[in-house]
Design goal:
Layout (H helix, E strand, L loop, with lengths): L13 E5 L3 H12 L3 E5 L5 H9 L3 E3 L13 E4 L4 H13 L3 E4 L12 E5 L2 E5 L6 H14 L4 H18 L3 H13 L1 H7 L3 H16 L7 E6 L10 H9 L2 E4 L5 H4 L7 E4 L11 H13 L3 E6 L9 H10 L4 E4 L4 H9 L11 E6 L3 H5 L3 H4 L4 E6 L5 H10 L7 E6 L7 E6 L3 H7 L6 E5 L19 H13 L1
Parallel strand pairs: 1-2, 1-4, 2-3, 4-5, 8-11, 8-12, 9-10, 9-11, 13-14
Antiparallel strand pairs: 6-7, 14-17, 15-16, 15-17
The structure holds S-adenosyl-L-homocysteine (SAH).
């Protein structure tokens, strides 16, 4: 670590600012916000700076900088565009052993200022030690997006209640759990909705309940984890993964996605693997109800979207029937994710005016499909769970009139590093799948669009590497 991080209490302390332009005005705003008693040395002042100084009863010395100006100040900021002046300010400050920051000049600075995310009283400072200020700004932008604007008010509320909570809940673990719920439950929701009185009421009630030994209200999130690539999670899913204390997940959810969950969260696998022993849906419903009723915050993580062939509807209904709170967080469904990553447009102005999401799971459901309607042209069929039924699907579609030379594409392990794409014609579907030993999970696309596959899209760089997301979410947990 090249620099020692610190937050300075400047309230009512004399500070010196050299320079009267726009950048000096920006520095003055921060110094004055921290309560500094500000003196500005500059031949002339920018209009904004003059206004700020007048408002805060600061002093303006209207001349060039003189070495003696630094005397009696706690902190010096030099914000001029003259390197000679910056150097003289730094020399004078160093001689007097006063910390000095010269804007945009690392050699003339004995301290540097971080990029900040301000949710006062919560302030996050980010520094790369001057090595890469742009990187610090990028991280700031990400944190800005992750942290709601109401966080400052929430921190202020917590500060008002800190003593009372300490007295009521002397045990550290209990207190920690209590605060976690405050920052992530109805209290935070009320603060976010600008309802301070409601937030105070909720907090007071929660404190009484926690003092009496109640474990607090549980809640569930039914979260779509997308087809596998963690970059395809929604921001909301990422937030939930950082908050839930239990993750109940399908086997289809990729390890990369699970990696993003809170490290201390309990993980329960309830997945169904085709052909293998699996949990009955009723048992999963009962497990969710039991966990939430006992006060746990449960993330039910499902592959793709929870409401597309995910039986999420049944889980949401079971929770609702038990009167337990639940939020549905949508995800990118396999049809959409696989089509994108294989370069297959799902609709096309000329070739496909509709997309049908179809299940190929189980003989009973396949037998009930409306083949006459599925065999019509100008539509894209996206078959889920169809790997063991390719022969049947192919025969039914052709028998009902879909031409045998209709293009098809199979996307196995779509969006994951091991993704495979196999294309051909409907009449060869079973042979193709056999020859390539296609295994679940795979999507089958039938329709002209499969022939329009754009296979040679040059790879683009991902905007956020999964590792970055992980550190971002850990930052959120620390907050
Ligand atoms: N709720 C999920 C679907 C669950 S059914 C969703 O919205 O995507 C499981 C089926 O989804 C699998 O049999 C397969 O057909 C499809 N699937 C899920 N992830 C996939 C992936 N990464 N690649 C290909 N198909 C996938």
């Amino acid at each position: 670590m090249d620099y020692f991080p610190a937050f300075l209490n400047l309230a009512d302390r004399p500070c010196l600012l050299v320079g009267g332009g726009e950048i000096a005005a920006r520095k003055a705003r921060l110094l004055l916000a921290a309560g500094a008693r500000l003196t500005v040395v500059a031949p002339a002042l920018d209009e904004a700076l003059a206004g700020q100084l007048a408002n805060h009863r600061g002093t303006h010395i209207a001349r060039e900088f003189d070495a003696g100006d630094v005397d009696g100040h706690w902190l010096v900021v030099s914000a001029t565009d003259d390197p000679g002046v910056q150097r003289r300010v730094a020399d004078a400050a160093n001689r007097a052993r006063i910390f000095c920051n010269a804007v945009d000049s690392l050699p003339d600075s004995s301290y540097i200022t971080p990029a900040i995310v301000d949710r006062g009283p919560l302030v996050i400072g980010i520094s790369t030690g001057g090595a890469a200020p742009v990187l610090a700004r990028i991280i700031r932008t990400r944190l800005e997006a992750l942290l709601p604007a109401s966080l400052g008010r929430l921190a202020a509320l917590a500060s008002r209640w800190r003593e009372a909570v300490g007295a009521a809940l002397p045990e550290l673990a209990v207190r920690r759990r209590f605060w976690e719920r405050v920052f992530d439950g109805p209290v935070a929701a009320a603060v976010e909705a600008n309802d301070t009185a409601g937030a105070e009421r909720e907090l007071s009630a929660a404190l009484t309940a926690a003092g009496a030994g109640a474990s607090g209200r549980g809640q569930a999130w039914l979260v779509g984890a997308g087809p596998g690539d963690p970059g395809l999670l929604t921001l909301r899913a990422l937030q939930v993964l950082g908050r839930a204390d239990v993750i109940v997940h399908d086997r289809l959810v990729s390890a990369d996605v699970l990696d993003l969950a809170r490290r201390d969260a309990e993980r329960i696998a309830v997945g169904k693997t085709p052909g293998a022993a699996s949990c009955a849906q009723e048992d999963i419903n009962a497990l969710l109800v039991e966990l939430v009723a006992s006060g746990r915050r449960v993330c039910r993580l499902k592959g793709g979207d929870p409401f597309v062939f995910g039986r999420g509807g049944e889980e949401a209904a079971a929770l609702a029937a038990a009167g337990l709170p639940c939020e549905i967080v949508p995800g990118i469904t396999a049809a959409v994710g696989c089509a994108a990553s294989a370069g297959i447009p799902l609709t096309h102005r000329d070739a496909a005016q509709s997309v049908v999401l179809v299940t190929g799971h189980g003989k009973a459901s396949v037998d009930r499909l409306d083949w006459a309607s599925l065999a019509r042209d100008r539509q894209t069929l996206a078959f889920y769970m169809a790997v063991r039924r390719f022969t049947e699907l192919m025969q039914n579609l052709i028998r009902h009139g879909r031409p045998a030379d209709t293009p098809v594409a199979i996307v196995e392990n779509g969006t994951r590093p091991e993704q495979r794409v196999v294309t051909g014609r409907l009449g060869q579907l079973a042979v193709l799948a056999e020859a390539h030993r296609i295994a679940s999970p795979a999507m089958l696309f039938v329709g002209e669009v499969a022939g329009l596959r754009i296979a040679n899209i040059p790879a683009a760089e991902p905007p956020v590497a999964p590792a970055d997301m992980k550190s971002a979410i850990q930052t959120v947990q620390v907050v």
